[in-house]
Fold:
Amino acid sequence: MTAEYQVHGDVAVITLNNPPVNGLGLATRQGIVDGLAKAEDDASVKAIVITGAGGAFSGGADIKEFGTPKSLQDPNLHSVIRALENCSKPVVAAIHTVCMGGGLELALGCHYRVGAPGCAVALPEVKLGILPGAGGTQRLPRVIGVEPALNMIVTGETVQSDMLAMIPGQKLFDKLTASKESLADEALAFARSVADARPLPLVRNLPCKHPKGEAYFQFARNMVKGMAKNFPAPLKCVDAVQAATTSRNFEDGLMTERELFLNLMMTPESRSLRHLFFAERAASKIPDVPSDTPKRDIKKVGVIGAGTMGGGISMNFLNAGIPVTILEMKQDALDRGIAIIRKNYEAQVKKGKLKQDKYEARMALLSTSLAYEDLKDCDLIIEAVFEDMGVKEQVFSKLDEVAKQGAILASNTSTLDVNQIASFTKRPQDVVGMHFFSPANVMKLLEVVRGEKTAKDVLATVMALGKKIKKTAVVSGVCDGFIGNRMIERYSQQAGFLLDEGATPEQVDKAIEKFGFPMGPFRMIDMAGNDIGWAIRKRRYVEQPDMKYSKTADLLCEMGRFGQKTSAGWYDYEAGKRDAKPSAVVLKMIEDYRAQQGIAPRKISDDEIVQRLIFSLVNEGAKILEEGIASKSGDIDMVYLTGYGFPIWRGGPMHYAGEVGLFNVVQAMKRFARNPHDDANAWAPSRLIVDLAAQGKTFE
Ligand code: 3H9
Structure:
């Protein structure tokens, strides 16, 4: 049952009961309409209260239903709201905890609203690339005023019921109750108090005007334009709210809203944002680790290494109120590391982002040590030392000696074999990879690397901890580079081939930046340091001699051009500045290399650049899925959206491939494989992508 019906004396109560958030799916909508009909038919019922069971009034329309026949099936949300408005007996919405999207629209269709304090109220549809489509853009301005309503609708931000109730003249809440606990009783009493009120008030009958009219909306559009780049929904929200103020009548305004809503629903941007909503939540679920798996208690964290990575990692835990001990081998390295943490926090204080007392509280949670023994009471120890298996062996053997039983031993390695690292201990079940991305205190992504023997409760604990430190944690199996770096290697390989064949670093960067990445591959590697990739390639040349590479990146390193840190990389940099200027020396190096390889340069289109870079990610991503390194395509998308700057409105590489059509992606890969200057092996399409393309399916 998704909406329960009960009668309390002369008041009927309809309780939405569709966990987890009382989404307004078909069965719930039907339940409301049925409840209303029963109440109408029962002469002893004088008024109706509608409320939500559990932790929400309602989180809105059931997003899972979008794009399915159920979303169109009657009663739709519009007909439910019409039934509420047309009910001959007063209907009171008793709102608590969460009242969002369609949930708020439903409440605005009721004759009265009684709210509990502390309730999160929002029309967050814009975050899904759509706009409120069941009258929200027409009714909210009528109850709280045009400007506050437009703000809420354009940003999708949540406002507490207490704040909304303070807006002068507001008609959103007829009453705010003393507490959430007293809501049920107070709503019943309120319903009785209005049982005889006639005519019943309707939000649609309230006036809706803005004194400055068109001038205000033009101003709003200018404001929104900047923040709405690449997203069509925010500007359409302005159009819809303006329609509330200019339409001949309420129904016309509703029609405008409906049309805008349906158009937005069809946009690739909305599909991407909806995919992101579910992928983000699904990432925290591991297929064979039940959600009720007991978690280990993490009260204290040890971090080995006070370098940039170790410092950033430590800050995450300090920010979450968890004490950290940082271990280094030498006092000066420790001092340097702590000074950087201080500097980072002080910069936040200076910018007003962190209060002085909070900064001091965080620093008070930090202790330092030069002795492994001091980590013996840590519940989690994360190693962030040099990427070398010999060094990892020393660290983990030592940890095995000193760490307490049940402590989780994590490695921040970005490429090394976590199974081998686990084998350096007698407790491989307690070893896991926690791959943070630089700067670790800023970047959202945390790749959690699951070793062959990693215990389920270790995984459950680390995933929950990821949420606590505000990371998007994604599980990866063990392979070279895990999900993110394994894929980026194919992308970098293509970037190199594009240079060999006639493109310049600037052209490649500009093409992919136009696609939406904040930085192209050459600017990115100049920032990270070209020497890192050089070291990895040297290893690859031995381990995978048949893998093809452009040698230009090696030649660049041989010239000592490691990137921004040497003021010279693929681009030239002025000392201390980050502006990339095309380098004549590099262009000459590339030309000489082409000549030496006998490659006649050709003009390469931006489309080809984008396709080769993105589809190389897609093919490797498909192999990663096929091998079970990632358990779902959404995980791969989350890695790229939160760790590699993949444009949000394109939904991640795997989702984007579905938008392009997997058949088209496979055709393009076959074409690229025929290019003699490319790596045909790398373009051999994964079995998975070929099968899905043949069935007309996507990765989702
Ligand atoms: C709309 O209303 C359109 C109308 O204007 C017009 C229609 C014609 N549907 O976030 P959590 C699930 S558009 C289905 O981890 P929290 C979510 O997937 C809608 N499922 O919890 C997850 O499931 P699972 C406008 C939903 O406590 C579980 O609930 N509304 C919906 O941190 C827990 O989610 C929104 O955009 C939904 N509407 O936060 C609200 N909402 O456990 C979006 C949640 O299987 N939702 N789920 O992974 C939120 O902002 C948060 O989920 C909320 C709870 C604040 C409600």
Summary: The chain has three domains: 3-264, 301-476, 484-694. Residues 20-21, 23, 59-64, 77, 98, 100-102, 105, 124-125, 128, 132-134, 136, 281 surround (S)-3-Hydroxyhexanoyl-CoA (CB under 6 Å). Residues 301-476 form a domain with the Rossmann fold fold (CATH 3.40.50.720).
